[in-house]
Specification:
The chain is built from 9 helices and 10 strands. It has 241 residues and is α/β, with parallel strands linked by helices. Strands 2-1-6-5-8 form a 5-stranded parallel beta sheet, with helices on both faces. The longest helix has 19 residues. The chain binds adenine.
């Protein structure tokens, strides 16, 4: 059974039938995962297919109705079963981490609820025990792009999708550090050279240099990661959850 992604959305067209030549797109064509959209508007009951209403207590914008979202969630749950986590993309959610991505990729898939307008009535999120996830401290116009980010991060970890398994263990967040800088040929380009150590063939020196670079760049750019790394240096995959 391939890894299964379902997006509950008011804008199913934002999830392309094909993801093109990208890694996730190739994996989709190869049948390593499936992507299904569920149009929330299809569960509106009135003649105008209303999905939103004004916020209780007043304020700007509109809120997605709990009864309509509930019907969409029930429909998805009845077809996927209870083992597929239901996730709501929102800047109010817990920050997405590589650890959570790894767990989700190892599971059967994800059902992702995408909010529009100001968001979804809290009662339907509480009623279904929805996991709220943010992809960063900025506000998108809806959860669809965030859902695609989540799916992309998961899909590249599905066994057989990425070129080599080594490339995971070595990369940035799996170690809790940002990645060292990369170089390739030509050895000299526009007066800029590839660092000598990388051409030395001395693998221990290369490893040590890359480690220094990774630590320096992490200290400089991400004091938060640097602190966490130094708090738990022996653990691997130790970025904050
Ligand atoms: N929807 C709108 N902004 C978002 C964000 N930063 N993360 C997840 N979902 C969102």
């Amino acid at each position: 059974v391939p890894w299964r992604a379902v997006a509950l959305t008011l804008f199913p067209d934002m999830f392309p039938g094909s993801l093109g030549q990208s890694l996730a797109g190739q994996a989709l064509e190869d049948g390593r995962w499936s992507l299904e959209t569920v149009d929330i508007r299809g569960f509106a009951r009135d003649k105008h297919r209303t999905v939103d209403d004004t916020p209780s207590g007043g304020g700007a914008g509109m809120v997605m109705r709990p009864d309509v979202v509930d019907l969409a969630v029930r429909d998805v749950r009845s077809r996927l079963g209870g083992d597929v986590p239901l996730i709501y993309m929102t800047p109010r959610g817990r920050p997405l981490s590589q650890n959570r991505v790894r767990e989700l990729a190892e599971g059967p898939g994800v059902a992702v609820l995408c909010g529009r307008y100001e968001g979804v009535d809290q009662r339907v999120l509480d009623a279904h025990n929805v996991e709220e996830i943010s992809i960063g401290d900025y506000v998108l116009s809806g959860g669809e792009v965030a859902a695609l980010v989540l799916m992309d991060a998961c899909v590249r970890l599905i066994p057989g999708v990425m070129g080599s398994d080594q490339s995971h263990a070595e990369e940035s967040f799996e170690e809790g550090l940002l990645e060292y800088p990369l170089y390739t040929r030509p050895q000299e380009w526009e007066g800029r050279t590839v660092p000598d150590v990388l051409l030395s063939g001395h693998h221990a020196n290369i490893r040590a240099w890359r480690r220094e670079q990774a630590e320096a760049i992490t200290r400089e750019r991400r004091p938060d990661l640097w602190l966490a790394f130094n708090a738990a240096p022996e653990k691997s995959g130790c970025e904050e959850n």
